[in-house]
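A.,

Following up on our hallway conversation. Structure tokens first:
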């Protein structure tokens, strides 16, 4: 399975903002954006030149890819899935990325970052509708129930998270989380205002239309 092994902090510095790729570390003074608020590389401190239209489109695409931790082929596949559907293609693309199983695990709070969420899914710790799913890109749909895989529920990792999850309040509006059963039900589709990402995904459509 292909995966991105590039340094996460460099990705944030390249985007010139926190993308919260390293979980709790991003909220501490150790965050790379706090320590070195300029681009990576020998020319990072010089700042960026005026970008062309193509450069702006590419930067937005790369930023979304970094946030969700997907490679180019995966990203293009998600784009191809939604490009012919009715509605704003950019919004549909973000909605599809939000409904990846690894992202849902992250949104629920079982992982501090999407990278950690992918590991949980890969290791078979997550179930959808009661069945183990170990594919991070799996698309959860309306009515699906995401839970901890029962044979793995007694792991110390999840036991340590129980109290945190029960005190958590900021669940997405499109996920109804049952704190007693520790399972999340998909009750809607993510909308632009729900995801908290400052990007105009419609620019990606223009990029692929070139």
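Then the amino acids I'd put at each of the 210 positions:
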């Amino acid at each position: 399975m292909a995966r991105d092994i590039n340094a996460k902090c460099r990705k944030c510095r390249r985007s010139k903002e926190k993308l919260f790729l390293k979980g709790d570390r991003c909220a501490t003074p150790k965050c790379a954006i706090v320590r070195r608020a300029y681009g990576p590389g020998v020319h990072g401190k010089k700042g960026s030149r005026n970008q062309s239209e193509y450069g702006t489109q590419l930067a937005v695409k790369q930023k979304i890819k970094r946030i969700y931790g997907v490679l180019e082929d995966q990203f293009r596949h998600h784009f191809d899935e939604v490009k012919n559907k009715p509605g704003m293609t950019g919004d549909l693309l973000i909605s599809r990325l939000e409904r990846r199983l690894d992202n849902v695990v992250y949104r629920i709070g079982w992982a501090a970052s999407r990278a950690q969420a992918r590991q949980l899914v890969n290791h078979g710790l997550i179930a959808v509708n009661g069945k183990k799913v170990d594919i991070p890109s799996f698309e959860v749909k309306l009515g699906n129930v995401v839970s901890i895989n029962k044979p793995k529920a007694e792991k110390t990792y999840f036991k340590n998270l129980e109290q945190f999850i029960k005190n958590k309040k900021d669940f997405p509006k499109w996920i109804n989380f049952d704190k007693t059963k520790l399972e999340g039900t998909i009750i809607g589709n993510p909308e632009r205002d729900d995801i908290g990402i400052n990007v105009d995904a419609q620019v990606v459509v223009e990029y692929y239309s070139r």
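The two ends are 30 Å apart (CA to CA). Curious whether your intuition agrees with the design.

B.
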